[in-house]
Amino acid sequence: MDLDPYRAFRSLFASKTVRSAWAKSYGEQFWEASEPSQSQATVDDIKFITQRLHPSAETKLADLGCGGGCVGRYFASGFGADVEGIDADPLAIRMAEELAVTSGAGHRLRFKTGDVSKTGWRVAPSMARLVWMSCSSWPINGLHCTKLPRILKPGSGFVGTSWELRAESAALHAQAFDDYPGAFKDAGFEIEIYEEIGNWRRLLTDAISAVVAPEDAIRREVEGPAAERLLRWARARPGELDHS
Ligand SMILES: C[S@@+](CC[C@H](N)C(=O)[O-])C[C@H]1O[C@@H](n2cnc3c(N)ncnc32)[C@H](O)[C@@H]1O
Known about the structure:
This protein has ten helices and five strands. By secondary structure, the chain is of the alpha/beta class. The site of S-adenosylmethionine has 21 residues, from helix 4 and strand 2.
């Protein structure tokens, strides 16, 4: 039987083994609305973003690297915000669109496939006020930072999490980049808060160990290349953490 790429992609998020690995290792930091393993957002991350963004029905958010869209859905369903998400992976966008319909907040959510560093992507011009938001664990870099003012309304802000990589990461397919303060300043931003998430290393290391242990169950539950991709990442990433 031919492998359906979207079904394979979705099977990662339906996997009880993957979810329980994340839930057990994150403990009280496990954010129920997250989509493990793609979203590595913790309860504290979401609290931080919420406090900084003050989302409301007046808020217009853009979600960079939105993946399956869990962060945007949270702000649209819980606070009435308008959210536009972009992700380079068409399968993730398909999932985000599907879940938007069942979330009951579909009219506040829009998703597009695109590469943030390359496209001329703009948020809908009807958006009066825009707060740029991202809760991605993919590394943004200097190139992404220079694109932000093109999309943001003057006076609006960026809240996000990203990896600082002091060396190339094979697991994340990313070049080294670690000067976020410099890149944001060059792009015209004032920096309000810039800090390291205190417990990221322990949470990630625990989650990775918990994913690798039930490898056979993951191969049964997650179809095709999605299982291989997850396991490859889980094996390669710990060796890189000294440079992250
Ligand atoms: C780890 S996932 C995070 C998903 C989501 N933000 C969350 O917290 O659940 C990182 C996402 O960034 C996307 N991504 C990576 N590079 C990108 C780029 N240059 N432009 C748009 N999306 C990108 C990937 O396709 C992936 O879905």
